[in-house]
Amino acid sequence: MKAVRLHVYDNKPVIDDVPEPTAKGPLDVVVQIGGAGVCRTDLHIIEGQWAPKTGVTLPYTIGHENAGWVREVGPAVTNVAPGDAVILHPTPTCGLCRACRAGDDMHCENNSFPGIDTDGGMAEYLLTSARACVKLDPSTRPEDVAALADAGITAYHAVRKAVPLLYPGTVCVVAGAGGLGHIGIQCLTALTATTIVVVDKNPEALALAEQLGAHQTIVADGKHVDAVTELTNGNGAEVVLDFVAEQGAQQDGFAMTRRNGSHFIIGYGSNIDIPTIDIISTERNVIGNLVGTYNDLVELMVLAQAGKVTLHTKTYPLDSALDALDDLDNGRIRGRGILVP
Amino acid sequence: MKAVRLHVYDNKPVIDDVPEPTAKGPLDVVVQIGGAGVCRTDLHIIEGQWAPKTGVTLPYTIGHENAGWVREVGPAVTNVAPGDAVILHPTPTCGLCRACRAGDDMHCENNSFPGIDTDGGMAEYLLTSARACVKLDPSTRPEDVAALADAGITAYHAVRKAVPLLYPGTVCVVAGAGGLGHIGIQCLTALTATTIVVVDKNPEALALAEQLGAHQTIVADGKHVDAVTELTNGNGAEVVLDFVAEQGAQQDGFAMTRRNGSHFIIGYGSNIDIPTIDIISTERNVIGNLVGTYNDLVELMVLAQAGKVTLHTKTYPLDSALDALDDLDNGRIRGRGILVP
Amino acid sequence: MKAVRLHVYDNKPVIDDVPEPTAKGPLDVVVQIGGAGVCRTDLHIIEGQWAPKTGVTLPYTIGHENAGWVREVGPAVTNVAPGDAVILHPTPTCGLCRACRAGDDMHCENNSFPGIDTDGGMAEYLLTSARACVKLDPSTRPEDVAALADAGITAYHAVRKAVPLLYPGTVCVVAGAGGLGHIGIQCLTALTATTIVVVDKNPEALALAEQLGAHQTIVADGKHVDAVTELTNGNGAEVVLDFVAEQGAQQDGFAMTRRNGSHFIIGYGSNIDIPTIDIISTERNVIGNLVGTYNDLVELMVLAQAGKVTLHTKTYPLDSALDALDDLDNGRIRGRGILVP
Amino acid sequence: MKAVRLHVYDNKPVIDDVPEPTAKGPLDVVVQIGGAGVCRTDLHIIEGQWAPKTGVTLPYTIGHENAGWVREVGPAVTNVAPGDAVILHPTPTCGLCRACRAGDDMHCENNSFPGIDTDGGMAEYLLTSARACVKLDPSTRPEDVAALADAGITAYHAVRKAVPLLYPGTVCVVAGAGGLGHIGIQCLTALTATTIVVVDKNPEALALAEQLGAHQTIVADGKHVDAVTELTNGNGAEVVLDFVAEQGAQQDGFAMTRRNGSHFIIGYGSNIDIPTIDIISTERNVIGNLVGTYNDLVELMVLAQAGKVTLHTKTYPLDSALDALDDLDNGRIRGRGILVP
What we know:
- With 341 residues, chain A is an alpha/beta fold.
- Chain A has two domains: 2-150 and 310-340, Quinone Oxidoreductase, Chain A, domain 1 (Alpha-Beta Complex); 153-288, Rossmann fold (3-Layer(aba) Sandwich).
- Chain A is built from twelve helices and 17 strands.
- In chain A, the strands form three sheets. In chain A, strands 3, 5, 6, 7, 8, 16 and 17 form a seven-stranded mixed β-sheet that branches.
- Chains A and B meet through strand 13, strand 14, helix 10 and strand 15 of A and strand 13, strand 14, helix 10 and strand 15 of B.
């Protein structure tokens, strides 16, 4: 089968021909990919930013945002069967460790992360596990929802953690209205009555944000921190959802947060550097966010099926994976790019 | 009356003779100081670290950790009367803003912070408000509990926020077993069944920590991060209570925190500088902490009266305030220094 | 001035001529009533159901849901001034007890409840306190929002407590779509993405519920518990907001709740009688709800000003108070009746 | 093998000879029983109180509180191996439903409850699943900890839910200091600084309660509600942990709860009957409690291994099961009875 594989860091991936995976373990599931999302993390992987964290052996297949149809299952699988349409939680988990027993899938002691530390879904088939499969309504096309498997769940997870802080009268800044941010805005609209202020460099992204429910949009032109401060009567926002968190945005994100507020780091790429006196004199928090739980993905699918979260996607054939990565890197995608094998 | 006043940043304070305060406003309360704690923040104030945040006009009286006896009250005061022994919440609040109406005293929109941004308690008398007064049992001597008014409440507040994270089987690192840390250890012992690991440069501080309930103590000798990692099977601690957060300790604090863990910043003085990829790939948090609420102080007094929190103090006459500050700066105080006018 | 006063339990109130109140205490505020809501609790007061709880001395003025304009203030009042339009939190509080210091206004140890245990607002003027006043936008007419002061805050408070239980995919039953329920539905729509199922005897109330965002409506015809069970695949609802809780509704409310679910009691009037084995074998909860906090009312006003909560009201002149009570008792009011002096 | 089986409701169980279970399914585990607790629920089962809830077919083996040694495992079991000492979570779960994915084992849609709705552990061997096994330290004897598998986990789960309500200065009433209650007291001592007030009919139980950390003990002699009211300055307790909840205790439990307090139902056997006006006018809650989660049991084992929870048990050979049930029914057991096959 065809697979988009990274051979050398800082070089473009290659579309190789590799053997199809098979379901050997009792809980193995082989999924025929219907849609594989293209994510900024793929760019970061290619740059080698994840290399010291994962130690993955090159070459391997990238693609960590996947949906498709079950084609083969191991002998102990009971929750899905060949033919089922599924969206995949990004990390197959063990189900037995403390974190799994607490529903905290991202912190499973034994999970894998296909597309990050093992072969992923920018391919015709993907090997995953029964515990990663969320069944889709048969009428749903995998390519239409694939971006919820990583961009969606990550945005949803961060919003859900922020909900208790976002009572009526609060302000939530969404920094970055791209692949994740445009979903985050919709999740905020569905789950809160907060005032949503979106900051992005790109006027088109801001126009989309407004359609999706943003109450205010601000061009990230260097004066945006002041603009947020003014808009909040000098206070800043109760929550900043920072979908960028690199190239200075991470410093702005903290600066836009009010006393007792929380800066949610979701994007990444640079260091955040804050005087501890600023943290304690205002009692502000910096909150890490990593993908989401299996139940987060199930809940997000409820929102999607109710039409409360809709994806703005641009599809590419698998053979055009490099174009898709290139378009993303150059800011030519509104919403999310999806490979359809 | 005598008062310890700062005239010039980076110079020693001076013991001046100034007029006694009087209760002019309806909720004003004048307290005769029975004990005023000496805190690392006083050193930071003298260094000018707080100057840009408070804009206080020099000279002014320092001392933000106070207990004593009510001497005069304004006409609308109903909760205390002259003669009552009281410990003082550090920030008199308005009682009417959103934060006050949520019990969140530290974020009152109109509070003052005597000793930080207005005249404090290193003096014979202090002007405060009815809303700051917590009545003491008549048998309690103010000098014996004064350190709970700031060191105590701050340690308690951080511990109370951490309690939900510290179920049996977890590890909590206490970084710094000084004035605040030695109270934090006792609060952890009273409110949780977590394993308490204390890190400090000073072997005497560690010996005290063990007496107070620490399960493990580690000398902060440069290998302490490795020691914590090893002790936690390579994982790190669910919570790090960082009572130091300067001179590198803030970086170590984050490094000792496990996946999904939280680094509580309580001390301060340097910058914390973390790659955002480290925050998101492990979903760790950096949590700000600022003093505590009025109810925190009331609860802490319950622990103190039950003998569950005892203070290690060293008393000085008011005239020896400079000696006390000097002893603190040079690590010659175990527990907390208290001025007794 | 005119005031609607109860002289004898189980007899109709009388419109008396009584002296106007004045602001004697430092925090007293006299409000000219612009709108006073008519509530089922007024009927329960007249029936004597509250007599053993309040011990109020008859005659007294009823009316616990009030908005209007400040006319006179005591010397220590700083947050409002004569002329301000205000909506009133129903219970003036002391601001100094544990509950007040935790933002938990309903459990103030020293509060009063005008209209319940002291003279209320079915009159031309009402005596209240600075701590009860929430300032209105000058363009808002008190009569248009008065019903938020008790019906609104009570519905909002219950919904806000339920929000953490109502993630996407859950079902919330609203039992009773009258004065409180029709606000509850709108709060659920604003703050959650739960599926809202409304149960009421009255088809007109159900029609209104649908307009306000109910996803399903069920006539309370004796088969409604079965209908909810069927609609939830035999499970019942995660949350039942029981705005009736009398005459059998309280038993149905519990019966419609699923394993690990919560039955919120908001209405009242009968006993709830449940086998403890049913409570423990399914781990269900019965949750009490009493009005709401000052901040709840502020948040609700945010929703109202954003058009997310709109009231369905029917106004009556003060002289027609008895007609209004009669209409309520006989189910002739959709939404809420408001007296406008 | 020998097994204690119930043939007819309201008749004594019989010690039968039945075939040993075998591990047929992939996740099956056969455990040789080292200790099986005797519980008031066994008496309730014999009385037929559970019959309409479980629909279990008679005869079957009772015993839902078990520990022992793994003897045989199915092919997909990875977490335990023959020879391992284990304590068993009472309900083997599916691991795939919403509740399991949230760590909420008791509400698994597909769980079984050996000893309640299928063959239990008052026998030489028990069939359970890998997901129910918590490995013990090899030095721990199963008979010494078996009572933690149901009495312990149930008490711990209720206490853990109550912890956020039990800040210093609060009062927690423990109603019933028997098999569950005596563990509950120790969990409260380990996890909170609340004032523990124990109510029981039996002076010996109260003496044990005092040894275990109770601050006050009250004989349940009909005046105990008044005694609690007086002791709490007329307020009642923030939390009542009702380990009895039958024969009037359930009414007393609610009566001893203060405004905004919570009555935790843990025992059962009678109806609770409360005016809804009492629930709403004080905003009190009735909280259901059912066993606990897998992680609860793991945490409780941490407390046990640290010596913070110790069991008071009385062992009987399996052949004396009827004596043990009889002793329990007649109040002749302090702590918990354990069958040792």
